[in-house]
Amino acid sequence: MDNKRFFLATLLSVFLLFAFEYFTPKKETQQTTTQVKQEQTKSLDQKVGKLPKQEVVDNSGGPEIRIPIDANAVKGSLNLKGALLDDLVLKNYRETIKPNSPLVRVLSGVQSKDPNYVQTGWMNAEHDTTKLPDVNSVWKTDQKELTPEHPVTLTWDNGQGVLFEKTISIDKDYMFKFEQSVKNTSNKPVSVFFYGRVSRGYTPKELSGYLVHDGPIGIVDHRLEQSSYKDIRNDSKAPTDVAWSKNTTGGWAGITDKYWLTAIVPQQDKNVSVSYGFVPDEDQSNNTNADGVEKGTYQVSFTSRQAMVVAPGETVSTFGHVFSGAKVVELLNHYEKEYHIPDFWKAVDFGWFAFLTYPIFIVLDWLNNFWGNFGLALLTFTLIVKAVFYPLASKQFHSMGKMKSLQPKMKEIREKYKDDQQLMNQQMMSLYKTQGVNPASGCLPILIQIPIFWCLYKDLYVTIEMRHAPFFGWIHDLSAPDPTNIFNLFGLLPFDPSAISPFLHVGIWPLIFGLTMFVQQKLNPAVLDPVQKKMFQFMPIIFTVVLATQPAGLVIYYSWNNTLTALQQFVIQKRMEAKAKKAKNAKNKTKTAKG
Fold first, then answer.
1. For 286, phi and psi rounded to 5 degrees?
2. CATH class label, 25-54+66-351
3. Domains of the chain by residue range
4. What is the pLDDT of residues 197-214, one digit of tens each?
């Protein structure tokens, strides 16, 4: 493979690195035609009456009453008004790498700036008039604090002989268990549907676009279902405010961010209906935020498809789980096995190539546990990739070596037939055939490794295990760009050039990458065409600028990969030269002997 094809293939690999996710369809099965959505909503209404409505909070009843939540990984409080899970922060994660940075908040109250909360409850079946607790009902509790060792039981009496009860427990990480029961001491049966709902009363300012999904997500009827905030807003129509709904048995659904997830996990043997919806704010005079997005509340709800009929003197119970925390892959896998939650690991957006991205992450995670450093894990993984693809790389370098030896003859053909392009190409192909060279064979190793490059990029971008993961020296976060910048002399000048333009941010590791690419380029066959030669001289600079704003871990991987490739290529070329010299000496000896 000549230099032109080599660098065109490299350019193609980087282009595909950023284009794969944009041009490939999202792995979701959401049906979007109006007719289908209307039929689904109609079917759901027939089964459960009405979907749980967004209730108006009454603030005239005095201050909120809360129970503290304190577990190994989270802390917060439970709101007794409405029995809302609406206050939760993560003890082990901060907003930035600074030690005094605020802890990450995953749940917040209805009246907060960014409402994000979980509500569970009951709805009346058709013709049932039982008074039910709502978002303004104040519950009684038997505990002063919710901890892994001490679950709390909340009770609410409707004053009509029906007692509603919720027992809430939490494990040492991020999983809550909600056990709900209805005790009927009245003289008539009670018929209700239970529901669980995740509500988000704002649209995140920084949507992740095509690189990672955020918004409604779930495994419904054994299939991954994802929706964007925009689609939910556009498709939710009054009076149901439902954008999409589907019946299923078990599964899970909620609202995800890049690293965090809040999801409802119903009892896995129960038939339920899942709905994604958006309820616009009632205040139409100021119904858009600063970004021009309509204000309202996004909802992901589970509703039972069969009514709980509680006869006089009976108690009927059900249970479910709520996950609210960090999307740690190992922990998601643990919950998947313990509670039989289908494909819970898919809460992490491994993308269209998850069948490859996920195993690569598992290998990286194992190497990280072995070394205690994700940077070293990346370097080790590169060695593994190099070992696996060594036969192909060896073939590539041998092909490049043969091409290099043919440079004088190729130059002669170019000059001789420069006025007849067709004849020149014919002579070139004849030369390749005579010498047993396939100019395209060297492209194969690069093309095969493109998916691996992309999967590494996804793993660095979407997995929380690599968030704030340090390397050595100045790299404190492998998932963020190199913080140094040559344009302010690596911090000596007191200004940030990237504020002027993102292209004015080039750190030390991107420079190292450019240098390794330049060295690798020098080991390749020389380009004969002056225009091409000039273009390829700028390739290291172009690639350096392109990768400068990408995760430092990816740049380190590329730099290390270039270094190993250059060393590998140098060794193989020296062996080929030694072999050629040996063959030449043997040929000379033969001629001398014959003479």
1. -140, 70
2. mainly beta
3. 3-18+363-584, 25-54+66-351
4. 999 999 987 555 567 889
